Amino acid sequence: MAKEIKKIMVTGAAGQIGSELILILREKYGDENVLATDVIRKDGAGLFESVDVTKKGSIEEVIKKHNIDTIYHLAAILSAKGEENPALAWDVNINGTYNILEIAREYKINRIFIPSSIAAFGPETPRDNTPQETILRPKTMYGLTKVAGELLGDYYVKKFDIDVRGCRFPGIISHKTLPGGGTTDYAVEIFFAAIKNKKYTCFVREDTVLPMMYMPDCLKAAVDLMEADFSQLKHHADFNLSAMSFSAKELAEEIKKHIPEFVCEYKPDFRQKIADSWPKSIDDSFARKEWGWKPQYDLAGMTKDMLQALSKRQKEGTLNC
Ligand code: AKB
To answer: Is 79 near ligand 1, meaning CB less than 6 Å away?
Structure first.
């Protein structure tokens, strides 16, 4: 039987997903039971400890001090930043993940969430409705570390009986914290630019189609997968997930429906090659079957919600924070 979730630690808590996941987890499990960790403290982080996941001792200290039994391990260097600094991506993503798994084994952690990404796929992978079991030959350092994370997660489940779970997130779109260093960042930046300046220069071609997901669905996926009945899971650390797919142009057109003056230009840079190596759409039938995954937001619903939230922030004067 799965062991209880009582005291949670989130690594990378200052990041795009972490900063929002913390709030949802605190609502659910209580403020005092969710510890935010990151290398640098963010204002208003609540219960917080500074942790560098590349230093095993730094994690161990905090695990013991706070009696942690569950970990959401979000600390990672994303695809674009990883291509600029592959050594850093290796250190944080490989050594950081290995440290977390080893600590889970040594300290008998009940449950761990380690997200993977569509970056685990590569140009040889079928790009439409990408299957769960398929070719994993990514060409980025980030992608390569994500494949290793998936395999390590499954290894710890089988070899050491550790409860590791994870899913392959698409690009995540949100309005609270900007993503940093990803290839799908354009799908977030475009909204901030549309509200602030009514124009945006997109760093991928207009016909670039990638799988995306709105933050509320992303948070729901992380929490639901962690609460799923372990005995029903045949997959563990590598669930395909899907919510919506659209081209950069379709996104700009959807924004134009709300802001008719909005203009989007396209100046592809080095991130185009990364985007071209990733799937356009994903088959997530195993996640739906094994733990009931079902996204709520499509392109129209997400765009409306994003623009409303950002307009509100602009009126409050908090858009540049
Ligand atoms: C990135 O673009 O690197 C990330 C991802 C798809 O994992 N957003």
So the answer is: yes
